[in-house]
Design brief:
22 helices; single chain; globular; six-stranded antiparallel sheet; alpha+beta
Length: 704
């Protein structure tokens, strides 16, 4: 068995449907290796998890509930009669897994597939009628706790309101009835078509996700494709042609060309081009891929470095009958630079001085484990990239450095430790307690920090795991100021287990498990588990802790505490916090952009808590006018238009319009980042004042 790098049967009857004449999706059945993988996973999880959970009737019920909820989170597809038909097997999944029998989850999924077809066909039928938008009706947009429809008539009424809501959104954006019918018919047809493309791997991945998260919120199963995506995310590279692809109207469409990749360097491909076929090598047959799932097309395009792939391409904006062209490309290693650490320098006024603040945005704690294992000299990692950026910022003579780890969900534990070392030098960073109660202290081994000046860490609810280790260590050492909203609250450590290697299987068949093996604690003895990292200076956020974060899981580990590690706090910022807080409060109170943000957040939270939208056109138009009036009262708020609702899904807009909207959203001023850099400018100002006070010679020495 190899443990790799640490991270953070009964027959189920289908209820008769009024739409039985619609062709049912294919009946999916489990594969032999999937049943073996489930059994292997169970053997490992019941023995080696941090908090082993027995695979018994109680867990079986949780697995079924989780699986059903994952398929129908808004409770608008299954009928109550379907749920009742599943109940006899609610306590049988544990025995089924042990006996390598996956008929139960596959039977549930086959009912789900038929329900998708039923509901999409009914939604398309509804488009043939007109809707009365003068009636006083509401549509519930939060149905995860609602009961399932008791009858088909109740389901029909639910879907009538859903289609009416979709129609009204498009109507409010200015679209005519004919265009609305065409857009929604295509939307529901695409959803229906997806139901016919499901494969047994999809069912098994969904089922295993339900099983693993029932054991622990952060335990996961990776099938072959999920494992490949995980590896790519960690090492920020893959072998391919360097194109970001998107499925649009049955075509695999080029959305973006990666600079320096084979596709961009060839000069033969452009954004909007559609890939209709893929061939291997210089003379292999070209397989048509129109209507093929995009993940399958991606697998055909990826391959070994230096190998040849041929693409049959229909040029952007050309008609379906236009001439195609065949393009030959040589696959190469593609670096995902957009997901790597990046820096920028901002000038910020603080008192009478203008401060230069270096901002390093870190989307993940990535590390190329394979290259590190091979001892390659220049292997890629988050801490190595940040170290280079810090050296560049020193050359640019910045006054402070802000590390932005908002929405950074974690990654390599070693990288979190190394990143902390860039700012503290050597010393304990995190403590780990294993299932046997043994505590190990992990330390940074850097003899000296790379950056000794003022530092801050910007966090939000999406900052989790390794991000929390880093932010907590900076806070416990008093090394910098932590700014933002309370973080996610994930205080557990995972490792990846290769199930094939565990049973010495020569060919990959069983996938991998990401298993919780330890809980981490701060050097001060506390943990980020459940509570997260509480910022030194709070900024507003949009997150709902009941739906996002560790507190949203009913099986999350509780908060706990152990003995503090032996560490020496720097306390370079601790004494400054009251003054920083006071300056922050005074600044945001008179900052119109910050106050507008607070208004918008309050408005969004109120809408979320309401949980319903009106289906009355007059009411909705009044809401729109009120919003427009609020925006008009804001000078220079044109960027707010980036948030206007056009009622379309991303793949329903023209590609150029969707890219423009995405760009507009990115260009909206980041008010929270602006305030965070102002706090860092204050920190530099105050630390410089302290330094002058310490180095100022005594009055007697100056003769005064």
């Amino acid at each position: 068995m190899r443990i790799s790098h640490v991270f953070l049967g009964a027959f189920l009857a289908i209820v008769p449907s009024a739409y039985a004449d619609v062709a049912s999706p294919p009946v999916l059945e489990p594969l032999k290796q999937q049943a073996q993988a489930a059994q292997l996973s169970a053997k490992f999880l019941t023995r080696y998890s941090y908090k082993p959970v027995p695979l018994d009737d109680a867990l079986s019920a949780k697995i079924m509930d989780s699986f059903i909820d994952s398929l129908d989170p808004d409770r608008g597809l299954f009928l109550q009669a379907d749920i009742d038909s599943f109940k006899p097997d609610r306590n049988e999944i544990d025995d089924a897994i042990k006996h390598k029998d996956l008929k139960i989850p596959f039977a549930i999924f086959n009912v789900y597939g038929k329900r998708v077809v039923d509901r999409m066909d009914y939604a398309r039928e509804l488009l043939k009628q007109d809707f009365d938008f003068t009636k006083q009706e509401d549509y519930s947009v939060l149905r995860d706790k609602a009961p399932w429809p008791q009858s088909e008539a109740e389901s029909n009424e639910l879907w009538r309101k859903r289609v009416k809501s979709d129609w009204l959104r498009l109507k409010l954006s200015g679209k005519a009835d004919a265009a609305i019918r065409e857009t929604l018919d295509k939307r529901y047809a695409n959803a229906l078509e997806r139901a016919y493309k499901y494969k047994s791997d999809d069912v098994f991945q969904s089922f295993m996700n339900a099983y693993t998260t029932a054991v622990d919120p952060h335990t996961d199963y990776f099938g072959a494709s999920a494992s490949a995506d995980f590896d790519i995310a960690m090492k920020l590279s893959l072998v391919g042609i360097g194109a970001v692809l998107q499925e649009r109207d049955d075509y695999t469409t080029i959305r973006e060309l990666v600079p320096g990749g084979p596709a961009q360097l060839s000069g033969k491909l452009a954004v909007g081009d559609r890939i209709t076929g893929v061939g291997q090598g210089h003379d292999g047959p070209i397989k048509e891929v129109v209507g093929t799932r995009i993940d399958e097309v991606v697998q055909l395009i990826r391959g070994k470095k230096g190998s040849v792939v041929r693409l049959d391409v229909l040029p952007a904006d050309a008609g379906a009958d236009a001439a195609h062209r065949i393009i030959t490309l040589v696959r190469d290693k593609i670096s995902l630079e957009k997901q790597a650490a990046q820096k920028t320098v901002l000038s910020v006024k603080a008192g009478d001085a203008t401060r230069k603040i270096g901002v390093i945005t870190l989307p993940a704690f990535y590390e190329d484990f394979e290259a590190r294992r091979k001892r390659e000299k220049d292997y890629r990692s988050a801490s190595r990239d940040v170290a280079k950026l810090l050296e560049e910022l020193k050359q640019e003579q910045v006054d402070s450095v802000l590390i932005d780890v908002r929405n950074n969900g974690g990654g390599s534990l070693d990288e979190a430790i190394a990143l902390t070392g860039l700012f503290i030098g050597s010393g304990p960073v995190v403590q780990q307690r294993s299932s046997d109660g043994k505590v190990v202290v992990s330390s940074s081994e850097f003899p000296e920090p790379i950056w000794t000046g003022p530092v801050g860490v910007l966090i939000n609810r999406g900052s989790a795991s390794a991000s929390e280790i880093f932010a907590a260590a900076i806070q416990d050492y008093g090394r910098g100021v932590v700014i933002g909203e309370p973080s996610f609250g994930k205080g557990t450590v995972q490792t990846v287990v290769d199930l094939d290697q565990m049973v010495r299987n020569s060919k990959p068949a069983f996938g991998e498990l990401k298993v919780t093996i330890a809980q981490f604690f701060r050097v001060n003895g506390g943990t980020t588990q459940l509570h997260g990292v509480t910022p030194d200076i709070s900024l507003p956020g949009l997150s709902d802790p009941t739906r996002f974060g560790e507190t949203s899981y009913d099986n999350a580990l509780p908060w706990s505490e152990i003995k503090p590690a032996d560490y020496a706090p720097a306390n370079t910022v601790t004494a400054l916090l009251p003054t920083l807080q006071g300056r922050h409060d005074a600044r945001v109170a008179s900052d119109p952009e910050f106050q507008r943000l607070l208004e918008d957040i309050a408005d969004i939270k109120a809408q979320r808590e309401k949980g319903t939208v009106s289906l009355n056109e007059a009411e909705r138009r009044k809401e729109m006018k009120d919003r427009e009036a609020r925006l008009k009262s804001r000078q220079g708020s044109d960027a707010d238009d980036a948030g206007d609702d056009d009622g379309l899904n991303a793949d329903e807009r023209s590609l150029s319009a969707d890219i423009a909207m995405e760009k507009a959203r990115k260009n909206v001023k980041d008010v929270l980042l602006t305030e965070a850099t102002a706090i860092l400018a204050d920190e530099a100002d105050l630390q410089e004042g302290e330094l002058k006070a310490v180095t100022q010679p005594p009055a007697s020495a100056t003769g005064k």
